[in-house]
Prior knowledge:
The complex is a heterodimer.
Chain A: E1 3-7, H1 17-27, E2 38-42, E3 47-51, H2 60-64, E4 70-72, E5 79-81, H3 91-95, E6 102-104, E7 109-111, H4 121-125, E8 131-135, H5 141-156
Antiparallel strand pairs in A: 1-8, 2-3, 4-5, 6-7
Chain B: E1 6-11, E2 16-21, H1 24-30, H2 33-44, E3 57-62, E4 76-81, E5 88-93, H3 97-103, E6 108-112, E7 119-124, E8 127-132, H4 141-151, E9 158-161, H5 164-167, E10 175-177, E11 181-183, H6 188-194, E12 197-203, H7 213-230, H8 232-237, H9 242-249, H10 270-274, E13 284-288, E14 298-301, E15 320-321, H11 325-331, H12 340-353, H13 357-373, H14 391-403, H15 407-411, H16 415-421, E16 430-431, E17 434-435, H17 445-453, H18 466-471, H19 479-492, H20 507-517, H21 524-545, H22 556-560, H23 575-586, H24 596-601
Parallel strand pairs in B: 1-6, 7-12
Antiparallel strand pairs in B: 1-2, 3-4, 3-6, 4-5, 7-8, 9-10, 9-12, 10-11, 13-14, 14-15, 16-17
Amino acid sequence: xxxxxxxxxxxxxxCLQCEMACSFEHEGEFIPARSRIRVFEFEHGRTxxxxxxxxxxxxxxxxxxxxxxxxxxSDLGAKLVSAQACVGCKACVSACPFGTIEFNxxxxxxxxxxxxxxxxxxxxxxxxxxxxxxxxGASGVGRxxxxxxxxxxxxxx
Amino acid sequence: MSWQGxxxxxxxxxxxxxxxxxxxxxxxxxxGERGLGTKYLWENMDPKADAxxxxxxxxxATGPLTGTNASTSGRYAVITKSPLxxxxxxxxxxxxxxxxxxxxxxxxxxxxxxxxxxVYLLIEGxxxxxxxxxxIWGKTVWETDEWIKKQHHNPMLKIATIGIAGERGAxxxxxxxxxxxxxxRSGVGTVMGSKNLKAVAVRGTGGVKVKxxxxxxxxxxxxxxxxxxxxxGLTKYGTNAMMDTMQEFGGLPTRNxxxxxxxxADKVDAKAMMKTDDTGHTNLLTNKACFGCTIACGRIAHxxxxxxxxxxxxxxxxxxxxxxxxxxxxxxxxxxxxxIDACTFAGYLMNEHGIDPISFGVTLAAAMExxxxxxxxxxxxxxxxxxxxxxxxxxxxxxxxxxxxGFGVMLGLGSRLxxxxxxxxxxxxxxxxxxFAGYDSRALQGMGLGYATGNRGACHLKHDTFEADMxxxxxxxxxxxxxxxxxxxxxxxxxxxxxxxxxxxxxxxFAAQLDADSEGDWTAERLMKSGERIWNxxxxxNLAAGLTKxxxxxxxxxxxxxxxxxxAKGKVNELDKMLPEYYDLRGWSEEGVPTDDTLxxxxxx
Lengths: 157, 605
């Protein structure tokens, strides 16, 4: 079963434990500026929205890359950047419609979510289950269920 | 390791900005944040200096655990000499600013002198400058935050700023970061204003490394699990759950401490915030975490749009920081107001203009008592009837104090100076000139001792005698828990973590995290001794500033007027019994001065 990261903004408190876990996993230190997952805040913190690569099937970053540095992990569905092949041209950064692949000025390469080899550390670190790693074919089910519940309440009231 | 090993010295007289190596000997003795900031203050200024003069030094300090993934790792403290008390000031805050300063590579930011013209400090990675602030001088906290981010095309900047109150010298102006988190107490924002420093804006692109990464990850996860077992109530209800406890106990200061229970408490408590009213409005929208915090006690609330305060002011129809216990107390019981929307709006105004809600509310309470006594009239108060319970008086005066207009200038002096000016110093509910928090010293004896001996004046956050106070309502056996918890809190405040973890973590739990994080062998004993050293250094600062034993006292109302109701009905605070015992335990003379032996034992000789 292919899994994907599922983000539920209504559960996010904005604590940024995900950014620390991600940067620690990839950089060996707590450096949120290099996290591949980011949390954005709106209206004085009324909502906090975690955001990262959705691992598009037809990945524009991959298509844009002139050196074929981006490949697909067929088990996870993750798009992975080869540090050897990446030349830091940033074509993928321009191509990604979501802005979730980013140039790292320290390495001269691009960074993106690699699903931590199937054990996403942002998921493990989230204290409120705002980020989960779920069946890619059913990541909308939770929201569908709450909409259905709402309809149920309306029907019986 | 988890110190960055670097501080930034900013001289506002010369506009010189100088990175310096962190003094590692001091870091090992004083940990970080509150302790290290106190040491740097002590070594860099004369405690006798006027708090508003360029000679005062203003320090922003992070701790060794700030910016790590330990839970609640977003704390920083602002340390300076207070213009409200003349004593040392140390106010800490959460939000995201503190961690960002650490990621910028600095443990501590030390500001000295006074700029000729208004400036703000900009730290963007390794580019650091003082930029002209004329365009934001006179702007609110919220406007300033937005302006600086736009000006530098950098929405990732984290900003700590003062509002109008700090620019214009209100004595308890705060430093507000991330829109609604504040280093609130003792006028640290007033000092910032006196230096013509409007804001510090930081984008940190570096990281924080720990000493033993593997052990650190294991221990912080264990500690998060432990924390989750103990803090569910704080997550769900926020700190305002305390309102009901104090109401029931009879320790809820009401109408300027004339009473200890408030008939309207259930209209401004945590449950009231969660209640949906007949129009479908619920005050509380969600809870909110500071950086790294797995508790998330912060509240995000909104005000009814048809409420008199904002019905014609659409700019306040958005969500923002909601009531915590201290703001609910300061806008509710202590001034007799039970209108939750007015209280929430007053909270917005405190953040927007940069004022300490506790000092404001308790000063307004004294003004209300003066008004009801007929000492002041509507002629003094810009036509506003300052009766207890008047919600409109609360919000009008909050705005006037924020903007330092009309009677707001008088309120901005703080309760001690205002009451002296009107010839009624006995109405000022303060210690060393700082207003009380929402706990009455007649019901909570040890709290009274903590208030009286507090190095920054009346403060509920620098000791924790709660358990002993609930068990027994006499002065017996309170000196020891007061002293021990003061030392312990000083260590916690120096770590970079939040004291709201103290219910789940004791000294061994803190030591385990610090030891995996930072060089040196950190044990519970060493942490306690560091805390005691910090407490005594703060005391030395105050003694050098001219404070004496006479300042370790409580207002007569708490020492002579018995509590009129509640579990402590008929009781007064027994400070005269507790204080000598406390001095003795501390190793201080009868005059409250640390003996040579004590100083020698703590390495302060």
